[in-house]
């Protein structure tokens, strides 16, 4: 189940000297979709408490300034303190980027802590999301 979708247009500032999107733009677009997801699950959530632990991306097609794109982000695994996401960025010709990242929820001291229950329960409610009990 897709848990977040976002659409946008590649800005000139998203491109490099080749005129195509810079590889970091895809990470920003996925992160924006993730943040919108958190806000939809818990409007008061402190987004800064979910830093990246791992990231990966495979680039399949270019996008240029002015091209429209869509980001689909899905929670693949929800642990006690971490969430693993899979995501795609698609343009008019299909998938441009396939990516994944894992975040760890931190407490006010920067120590891994249990994901807020409201967020955790809503993410686990999907039949595609697997829950880790360890």
Please give a structural write-up:
There is one protein chain. Helices cover 20% and strands 36% of the residues. With 134 residues, it is of the alpha+beta class. Strands 1, 2, 3, 4, 5 and 6 form a 6-stranded mixed sheet that branches. Strand 3 and strand 4 form a beta hairpin.
Order of helical and strand elements: EHEEEEHE
How many helices?
2
Kindly state the percentage of residues in helix.
10-25%
- Low-pLDDT runs of 5+ residues are 127-134
Structural class: alpha+beta
Strand content: 35-45%
Distance between the termini: 23 Å
Describe the secondary structure blueprint for this structure.
Layout: E1 4-9, H1 23-41, E2 52-59, E3 68-78, E4 82-91, E5 94-104, H2 117-124, E6 130-131
Parallel strand pairs: 3-6
Antiparallel strand pairs: 1-3, 2-5, 3-4, 4-5
């Amino acid at each position: 189940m897709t848990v977040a979708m976002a659409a946008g247009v590649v800005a000139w500032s998203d491109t490099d000297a080749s005129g195509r999107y810079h590889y970091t733009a895809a990470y920003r677009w996925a992160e924006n979709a993730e943040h919108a997801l958190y806000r939809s699950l818990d409007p008061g959530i402190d987004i800064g408490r979910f830093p990246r632990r791992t990231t990966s991306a495979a680039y399949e097609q270019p996008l240029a300034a002015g091209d429209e794109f869509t980001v689909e982000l899905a929670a693949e695994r929800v642990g006690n303190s971490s969430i693993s996401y899979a995501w795609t960025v698609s343009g008019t010709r299909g998938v441009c980027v396939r990516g994944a990242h894992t975040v760890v929820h931190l407490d006010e001291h920067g120590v891994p802590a249990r994901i807020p229950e409201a967020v955790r329960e809503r993410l686990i409610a999907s039949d595609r999301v697997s829950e880790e009990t360890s």
